[in-house]
Design goal:
With 335 residues, the chain is mainly alpha-helical. It is built from 13 helices and four strands. The protein has a four-stranded parallel sheet, sandwiched between helices.
Amino acid sequence: MNAISPDSAPGTPDPAPANGRIVLLTTSHRVAPGLLSWPAWQELRAADRVVCADGAHPQLPYLRDAGVAVDEATPTAEELVGACSGGRTVVVVATGEGEPSLTDGLARLAGSGRVAMPDLELLPASYDLPGARLLDLVQVMDRIRGECPWSSQQTHKGLAKYGIEEAYELVEAIEEGDRDELREELGDVLLQVVFHARIAEEDPEEPFSVDDVAGGIVAKLIHRHPHVFGDETATTPEEVKEHWLRTKAAEKRRTSVTEGVPLGQPGLALAAKLSSRTRTAGLDVPLPRGEGVGYELLALAARAEAEGVDPEAALRAAARAYRDAIRAAEGVSGA
């Protein structure tokens, strides 16, 4: 955009140059139609002509309601340049795919040197907020659920095993330090959440949506972080954890620190979680004494947790080292 001249009224678009102006107005489909920036509305209202090649563009009804006349036309580059003669301004409301043929045509005209070109400006009229692509995922999942023969038949129980697999693959990517793999596995885990939420919408008795899922976790995070969103203070991670557990126990009316600990998780993780709950609650509960490897592993897991070590992660790291040693003994290159 050109700078506003001293003679320009505040809050109005700049005067058009002698050869006119072409303003390419881009919008995000992830933002509610009609929620355009103030500069965009200024340009639309002051333009000599507004054109849009997409008659189904979601912005069109709102532009017309605001009194902006829009031509549903597909002008060529030459026609647009001609429409700008005499210092006129033409605003092009870009389609979802942009206007590649138009911009290419304008570039060719400018390169020919045979045409006095108008000023060409790009004006983003709405912007994606962080997390906006999640809306795309919800829309894609909705279509897949409705049209894919496999996805349309899936249930929560049928998908349960994939959630476990994806979680383990995510952990592996974290431990391997592979950033590309980490990004992909996070997407796979996110897919499981959105897929289950989409299935839940169809429940005849207790339906809920992905918005209900997100709303629930937002409320929970705010409630359990009063040191961030409220008046309480917490200066150490330990204080945060203690408050979290107290709040969680009060919310769920638990009578034991062991409630909510899934017994189906891997054994070392289970032992470490029980040890952590006990230590955080300030309970002095001696480990049970018994014969066998199980009790030895329990003691090792409790010791690891007390020292701040994840026993599952530690054992996996040792197992990978053992795997590498086996492959080396076999003469197999690569780990």
